[in-house]
Amino acid sequence: MFTTKIKTRFFEADPVGIIFYGNFFQYVHTAYEEFINSLKLKINFFNDYEYALPIIHAKADYKAPVRFGEIITVNIIVTKLKKSSFELSYEILNQKNIIVTKIKTVHVCVYKNNFKKTLLPKELFDSLKDHYSTI
Q: Is residue 120 part of a domain?
């Protein structure tokens, strides 16, 4: 499991002071970038000329509100790992360690020049496998 903390900001809230639901996808993408960078891969998948890892499916379940100024914890677990794709499950916890949101994203490996699906590079597959869990 990979874990990071993010401070919510005033501009991310709605007029009632609760974080706007769409911003949770921004939080998990920030955590996703940190997670991929923490793997210290030879390929920089955010700026590679050959491969890309676009999200092909995303879903969220909102359990409780979060107010601006809170520091949230984002946990990431690899919950599916296939030859060309992987699923990440995110748990977002508030400062009381209560799960407030659960999000899943599915990423597929494609060639950047034609967006045709291809196998995950071995180094990425092996690194993701180290974070795999069926929770």
A: yes
User: CATH no. for residue 120?
Assistant: 3.10.129.10
The domain of 84 spans: 2-129
Separation in Å, CA 49 to CA 7, 46, 71, 111, 114? 33, 9, 35, 9, 12
Give the three-class secondary structure for 35.
helix
Phi, psi dihedral angles at 36 (to 5 degrees): -60, -45
**pLDDT bucket at 121, cuts 50 / 70 / 90:** very high
CA torsion, ordered 110, 129, 75, 29, to nearest 10 deg: -10
Whole-number percent of the chain with pLDDT over 70: 99
Question: Could you report the per-residue pLDDT of 35-71, keeping only the tens digit for each?
Answer: 999 999 988 888 888 999 999 999 999 999 999 999 9
- CB-side neighbour CA atoms (13 Å) of 7: 3
Distance CA 91, CA 79 (A): 12
